[in-house]
Amino acid sequence: MRPSGRELNELRPVTIEPGFTRHAEGSCLIKVGDTQVLCTATIEERVPPFIKGSGLGWVTAEYGMLPRATNTRMRREAAAGKQGGRTVEIQRLIGRALRAGVDRVALGERQITVDCDVIQADGGTRCASITGGWVALRLAVNKLMKTGEVISDPLVDPVAAVSCGIYAGQPVLDLDYPEDSEAGVDGNFIITGSGKLIEVQMSAEGSVFSRDQMNTLLDLAEKGVSELVAAQKAATA
Known about the structure:
This protein is an alpha+beta fold. The protein is built from six helices and nine strands; from the N terminus they run E-E-E-E-H-H-H-E-H-E-E-H-E-E-H. It catalyses: tRNA(n+1) + phosphate = tRNA(n) + a ribonucleoside 5'-diphosphate.
C-alpha cells in the first residue's frame, strides 16, 4: 500500500490554473498533489550572444524554491550569494527539456525565459516545473502568434515530465516525498506528447534495478505523461 493510498499506476491529483499572474506573457500555477509551482514565461527581443545573428530563438529557464516550500526553512540562495548545485542542475534540465519541443527557426531571434518558483514541495518539483513550464511557454507563444510576430507555431510537441520509482519493492508512478525519500530506485522521465523521450534520469538509491524493472517504469511514465499532456492541453485550449 502506498502512503497516499493511490494505485501503483496512479498520478497525484493534477490541476493547472493558466494566466495565474497579470504581467507575464504566459503563466500558470500547477499543483501535483501537495507540490505547487508558479511558472511564468517572459518574452524578450534578444538572444544570448552565442546565437546572435543566427535567426534562431532560445528558450531558457530559472528555478528556485521559496524558503518555506519545505518543512523547515531554507536560506534564500540570494542571501548566500550564489545558487546551489542542485538549483543549477534543475534549471538547466528544465531549459533543455522545453527547448526539445521548440522549432527555434519558427520562434525567430528572440528569447523566452521560463521561471519556475516552488511554493510548496512534496516531491517531483522538477517534473512539475517542466510540465507547468510548458503551459506558460504555450501561452506566451500564443500571444506572439496572435500579434503576428510569429507566423508558424514553434511549439512542435508538448513536453511533460513525471517521476517513477521502486518503492517497497513495487514500481510506482509519481512519487510524493514519503515515497521519494525511501525509494530503492528513483527516476525522472521527460517525454513529448507524441511519446518521444527527451531525457531519462534513473539511479539506484538503495538497490540496483534490472532492465525489466526499467522498462516497467518507462511504461508507467508514458501513461503518466499522456495524462499530464491531456491536462496541459485542457489548460491551454
